[in-house]
Amino acid sequence: MHKILAMLGFALLAAVGVAPPALAADYPTKPIRLIVPYPPGAGTDGTARIAAEALSSRLGQQVVVENKPGASGTIGTDYVAKSPADGYTLLWTSTDSMSAVPALRSKMPYKVPDDFSYIAKFAETGMSLVVSSKLPVTTVAELVAYAKANPGKVTYGTSGVGGLPHLATLLFDKYAGVSMTHVPYKGVAPALTDLLGGQIDFALLTPITIVPFVGSDKMRIIGITAPSRYPLLPNAPTMIEVGLPQATATVWYGLFGPAKLPPPVMERLRKEIIAVAETPAVRDKMAAAGLQMAAQYGEEFEKSANDEFNQWQAIVNAEHIVVEE
After folding, report:
1. Model confidence pLDDT, tens digit, residues 65-77
2. Using one digit for the tens of pLDDT, what is the confidence trace for 86-99?
3. Beta bridge partners of 257
4. pLDDT per position as a tens digit, 52-66
5. Averaged over 13-24, what is the pLDDT?
6. In degrees to the nearest 10, what's the CA dihedral of 226, 229, 233, 236?
7. What would the mean pLDDT of 305-318 be, rounded to a whole number?
């Protein structure tokens, strides 16, 4: 009789999407899928692989990075939102899919923060202003002057409509008084390829994305959107320095799960991601990629991300920024 009641209890827990306590306490007992909602080769993917390698070692189970790109990160993000809340399908994403895109688009397949468990904010960075070497500019001032003299002719690439690079470039356009033409891609990597090939003129790219190309004769780094200069790019002035403080914007990367992850699972993941963030080898890899550690966990992280969403939404409304969906 007791066995029957126990089986019924576990069946009920499974039916409502809650992991049985014993299973949650033993977590993890199999490999974990870490969904990255962007293509390989960009900042989100790079930071995910650094974290996944370290988490695999600490959890005793393989953390497998799986890219599900598309629609400015919303396809992969929505996939995790609708996955079982058992801790075996997690999300590694950035400001884009959790703050910027939801603030800019009225129609979203998921709702923030309701559809997610906020596990940890891990690292953050500014975006580099990068121009093709084919464009006759070497400074932000020269870019602005050239764009004003050639309205609509300067093209810029982003990882998709409504993402943070798109939104941040729209703000740059507005406060610089220029009009550049948007060329959306399905991810950062193809945008970078076309920038290096001279098919587009300009892009906002995270330092981790362009580190392998620093010094290349195919591009120039003329500024950074971070509040202060980065040691990795010491010659790139901030937007504050060039007189465009409104164009300051940062990108963060973090770990999420579907809503209502069991508390034991949340606690285990939080414990291990804290340990990973404090590992000297991980910190060195992040610093080498131009990233700064930015630890926030649970409710603090959720509040911070939600405040950022509200700030972006206020900017979108105040500046009457409209993106066709």
Report:
1. 999 998 889 999 9
2. 999 999 999 989 99
3. 117
4. 999 999 999 999 999
5. 48
6. 80
7. 86
Q: Please report which residue ranges of 151-262 form alpha helices under DSSP H.
A: 164-176, 188-197, 207-210
Asked if 149 and 178 touch (Cβ cutoff 8 Å), the reply is no
In the predicted model, what is the mean pLDDT of residues 1-22? 45
Sign of the CA dihedral with 20 first, then 23, 24, and 30 last? negative
- Give the relative orientation of helices 263-277 and 43-59 as an angle to the nearest 10 degrees: 110
CB 189 within 8 Å of CB 41? yes
Q: Measuring CA to CA, which residue among 289, 277, 153, 283 is closest to residue 232?
A: 289
HEC letters along 12-73: HHHHCCCCCHHHHHCCCCCCEEEEECCCCCCHHHHHHHHHHHHHHHHHCCCEEEEECCCHHH
8 A C-beta contact, residue 264 and residue 21: yes
Q: Quick one: which of 142, 132, 139 has its CA closest to 192?
A: 132
Distance, in Å, from the CA atom of 312 to the CA atom of 166, rounded to the nearest integer, reads 12
86-107 burial: b if 16+ Cβ within 10 Å, else e: bbbbbbbbbbbbbbbbbbbbee
Cα 151 to Cα 13, 70, 154, 305, 308, distances in angstroms: 60, 30, 7, 35, 32
**Rg, the chain, Cα only:** 21
Query: Would you state the pLDDT for residue 72?
Result: 83
Read off the amino acid at residue 206: T
CA 271 to chain centre: 22
Distance CA 267, CA 256 (A): 13
Q: In the numeric block, which tokens belong to residue 264?
A: 């034991």
Cα-Cα-Cα-Cα torsion 94, 318, 236, 181, nearest 10 degrees, comes to 90
3-class SS of residue 136:
coil
Question: How many Cβ atoms from other residues are within 10 Å of residue 46's Cβ?
Answer: 21
**Could you tell me where the DSSP H helices lie in 150-252?**
164-176, 188-197, 207-210
**In terms of pTM, does the model score above 0.85?**
no
Q: Which amino acid makes up residue 125?
A: T
User: For position 24, what pLDDT does the model report?
Assistant: 65
